[in-house]
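Hey, I'm writing a tutorial for new members on how sequence and structure tokens pair up, and I'd like a real worked example in the thread rather than a made-up one. If someone can provide the structure for the chain below, I'll link this post from the tutorial.
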Amino acid sequence: MLSEGADLGLALDGDADRFGIIDSNGEFIIPNQVLYMLYYHLLHVRKCRGPVARTVATTHMLDRMAEKFGYQAEETPVGFKYIGDSMRKRGSVLGGEESGGLSIQGHIPEKDGILAALLMAEIRAIHGKTLTGVIKQITDEFGFVTSERLDVAVEAREKERIIKELQNFKPSSFCGQEVVKRVNLDGTKIVLADGSWTLIRPSGTEPLFRIYVEANSLEQMQEIQKEVRNTFRM
């Protein structure tokens, strides 16, 4: 990107259902950012109207945008089949997951990396600014969030211990904040008073846990990650 002076880098996986996006400054645009950029574009430029569907592990920035326009974000288990079901039944204008899959209303209810790449090119052209510039415009309006997934390997016997502890994990506060919501849709998720959240999901095939965190600063995100690992001795 930098050596060629390109405006946009677009990549696909082998079967083209997932995408990878690089901005002109060489920065990787994570799927969560792609999703909220696209929902913003659909609402403001294409004038689409309707809710959004996201998995339990995906950014709540989509919820903030939906609320402003009088809609709700539907939270689904991890897996695009649940997103597709929401798009068919609720008419969600966008459905996506943090692992790099999305589709929009009027297209197939299945993830499509080619569609995602073309929509990013559309956003780059119509908004007349870099993708990081569009992200800044959005965070200026809706607030800054940062998110990350950690994969933490554990011993097989430890995995069973942690799963049992998660079943009884119902804290009233966490990382110095009140817990305002607990979600058991797919894994164990707690939402804190300032909108930050963490989701802990065991892998179904490996002795590891996936820790998802979204927070309002990098420092807060790292604090929550550390607290989760300390709480469950990972």
